[in-house]
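User: Quick sanity check before I run a bigger batch. Here is a single chain. Can you write out its predicted 3D structure?
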Amino acid sequence: MKRRNAVKNISALTLGSLLATRCKFEMSGEWKDIGLQLWTVRREMEADAKGTLKAIREIGYNDIESAGYAEGKFYNMTKEDFKSYITDLGFTMRSGHTRTGFLVPEMKNTMRNQFEGVCEDAAYMGQKTIVCGWFSDEERKTLDNYKELAELFNKCGETAKSFGLQFAHHNHDFEFQKIDNVVPYDLLLAETDEDLVKYQLDLYWIKKANEDAFKYFDKHPGRFISWHVKDMEDSDDRFFTEVGNGVIDFKSIFAEKEKSGMQYYYVEQDECRNHKPLESIKISHDYLEEMNGMKTKVSIG
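Assistant: Done. Predicted structure follows.
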């Protein structure tokens, strides 16, 4: 009888351990999860999406943000196949970028055309956030253009909310270039509903624009629910570099994560000129892991 109970206890502990490991990824809403924006490895994803994702997981990333969604597919895979593969690897995908659809108005599942389809697919993937990743020159020439974008953001935010999702916008440096003495980024913040529209702050681009992230945290607390974490070279062209190899003070910025409202963040490096992308993202991952005092346990399969 004692032996039988011991076997039962061991089995229960083993099952509990397995469930705890699985729950780590299913309940990974903590900011300590190190995420990767897949734009960094876009060429590798195009050449071998599955092999690239496995390599990313082996580095230690456990959350990814899509930059390859188009008309119902993720990196040319059906949403069913893509979700199955990343789930098997132990990834969550809490966020994904989408397109405004301005340049290709006939394209389905964009912010301007059948946005409900974007929301359906994002919800299926388990996303929490849908992010406008960029808009074209033609969409941002005037302040009226930005007002139209703000209206579009509010509309998309309302639709996203009906699917249990949060809409957000990701900045570059051009939103901080004044038009008629107005900073367009400030206009977007003022003209959008603070509950329907949040922001994904790119820490490189705001510095490239010579703006202060802390000023925005103070003025709009809780509105910057995710970050893109990328570093800047100490060079004349202030080029992209691996996190920890540049001039951005990430320790000070992470100290303000609660005021910011940051729930999750993604390493991103638009271009890599000193290392191959997979090498660069490992350098960035290892720096953040050490900075935040954590050790990622990788379990594949």
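The longest strand covers residues 92-98.

User: Great, the batch can go ahead then.
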